[in-house]
Amino acid sequence: MRRIWAVASNTIAQAIRLKSAGIVIVLLFVLLPMMGLTVVGDQTLKGKLQTFSSYGLSLTSILLCLLTIVISCYSLTSDLKYKQIFLVTTKPIRRFELLFGKFLGVVVLDAILLTLFSAIILGLTWSLPWWVKAPEGQQQQADREFFTARAVLVPTTNEKAIEEEVKRRYDQLRKEDQIPEDMTRERVLSEIRSQELFRAKTCEPGRAKLWTFEQVRVKNPNDMIFIRYKFRISNDPLESQVLSTWEIGDTRPLESGQNPGTPIFPVQRMDATQTELEFSVPSSCVAADGFLGILFFNDLQNNSKTIILDDLKVMYRTGSFEGNFLRVAAMILVRLVFLAALGVSVSTWLSFPVAVLICLVAYASGMINGFILESLKSLSLTLDILYRLTIRPILWFLPKFDEQFNPTAYLVEAKSLGWLFLAQAWGITAFIKSGILLVFGMWVFHNREISKTTSG
Amino acid sequence: MAGKNGEFVIETIALTKIFPDWWGRAKVIAVEDLNLKIHRNEIYGFLGPNGSGKTTTIKMLLNLLHPTRGKALVLGGEGRDPKITERIGYLPEESYLYRYLTARETLDFYGRLFNLPPRVRKSRIDTLLEMVGLTGMANRQVGTFSKGMARRIGLAQALINDPDLLILDEPTSGMDPIGTRQIKDLLIHLGKRGKTILLCSHLLADVEDVCDRIGILYGGKMQVEGPVRELLQQSDKRQIITNAISDAALHKIEAIVAAEQSECQVSSPMNRLEDLFVRVVTDAQQRQQRTSGAISTTAIGGFLAEEAEAEDILQRLAASKPDTDFRKPEFVELSPVQTTPSPTHIKSDLLDQLSHPPTVPTTESSAQTSRPAELPPQSLDEVRQNVLDALIDRSKKGNADTHPTRRSETPGDQNHA
User: Fold this and answer.
1) Quick one: pLDDT at residue B121?
2) How close A448 gets to chain B, by Cα (Å)?
3) Which of A260-264, A283-287, A324-328 has the largest mean confidence?
4) Do the Cβ atoms of B90 and A86 come within 8 Å?
5) B115: domain CATH number?
6) Mean of the pLDDT values across residues B65-77?
7) Are residues B12 and B98 located together in one domain of the fold?
């Protein structure tokens, strides 16, 4: 281990002398405080905090990812190019130890830099309310909706009912001989399933829609429950307003004509469409068994078009902002570990520019992983076996840095990043995928010739 | 210490390296069927022109290149085994150091790769820095060093583990003459202390001064191999070295030689440029002239001499017996400082000269073959007779009483006749 640490510390010493490292460090030291001072957001304190934390962490993440790619690719290729490797591999250190030392050095440097700049962001975020001198109401809103960590629940969907409906409609289409000839059965079923899922979140004029949530475990009865959603209206211009009426509580007894189990909180709002919206109600609306019903009315007197409720979520406080911030930083470290492993691995057999290119492609694909998966999904229907044997393993191996793996989204929405999910990300990406990459790199490095040229 | 059979420290068996082209066809045969065998405690000079396969062979020994055919064994095992590499010190043809590390950090890094405890590491680093004359530049980045200074640090890193086997590729390249002299002295010292050294150099004079045995490689094949003395000695000629004797004596010698149906050349020998250079720089050092370069020193690391005393005793015992083994030459009594004075020894020589001014021989002269031997005072006739007898006697003996040239007298310090 001492030898590995010797290589790791040398890698750190080498990395911090790189110009690119200096540029990244100086940029972050300059830009983060500047962003803190100049950030505007939606003019509210919460908006400023959301914008600053989002931009600050994103910038830190992007720059550290690029730095990781450069350092991890440079460290070994530079040793090979300038032949310092001759003196190292002829010492009593195994090649896998050398490679692991390089990887460890990059990761330790990443951890140090991430800790440093996360601390700066956290400090600036804490001090932003003091600088801005926001009104009391905004301070309270920021405390409620930003300086917290909230659990997020999505509506319970009756998967079985949806699948039955999908099957029924498919059979009917087949009976009526309306299935297009150029579409496979899977494709038709997929199309119908999408339509059913879409229908589950639409509410036609004059109708009501009930969404139910289970396992709502509010720790403090004095806390609030947050309802988050986004409106869309079919065939309607973007800037339109929607008058919405909600009733929130344990609605189950109402179905049988009995008194509700909890207080029912009526809410009426006038909201813009295509915007993430949020309101709160007291947590006493949640039943003792964790059930919560949300009833939405599309009042015919106010709206004449179908309303689509996208991304309806129920949120409630489960932890502290600081704890969540720590987990978010740990999630950023996952991608840095993966990129370090990839960089070190590919630099065992590729030159510096090619290795960097490979890493950049992997990083970019990780940032749009969801899009790539979605766009290649159709291939799974047409090239079933080929897809399963070739494309799917590659897709699995691609890093996932977007959607639920995007750490900044957690801070912006004050969503709690669960320990379990974080452990899963570390397990799959930082240990399994990075481990496979490192083992492959070690195998290549173990078998390759260090010297290719001869001088005498 | 030696090979699997306990005989060789380095052994190659039909070692071959072929560099293929892009299509996998043989493009360059760098080394071909090389059978190299180096014994324990031997200083082996590995010679050859550029592209002859020396460095390729070394790289195969150290697992930097894979042999196409054959085997390369070092200390009885493969060069990739950490148990083997922890006993090897290697200095490549260039120093290949991390430019951003200081001299001390460089040695510390390599010391850590050998798992040396911090205290041992620190002690060895201090000793080695002093040994290579870079104590004053311990905290300077290696990237700012001249090539010669980088070579010194390169050599220091090769010694940090007190290796049993030293593989040195052009150790004196880029070094000033004093540095070169120090390295040669150091190699001889290390040889005395039981190290085996594979020395690769283009500077043939250095190899000649230091090595027990040499091998000359050309086109990847071993052309000639053997003890230096055997390969260099001109057994059909004789050399006599005297002090400045009279013309009359010279004529007599010429007459004797003519009577033997032979010819002789008489000239006054010249000092070697290396000696002149060393003397000038030593004088400057004595005047304490300031310099930002390396400081000359002849100190040798204590940790490298741990077994020296015991081995010296053994060698003295061995030397007291008749020994025809070329691997155990009679070098023990003749230390390198006697033969090629390094700066500090020049200092002591100067002091000796001040206290005991040299006397010019008048009627007495001492005759020497290539090995010094003191003769009692004699008349000129006796000298002539003795020289004649010696010539006849040695020609009869042939090479029976020859001695290795390594660690012998420096010709520039004596007169040739």
Assistant:
1) 92
2) 8
3) A324-328
4) yes
5) 3.40.50.300
6) 91
7) yes
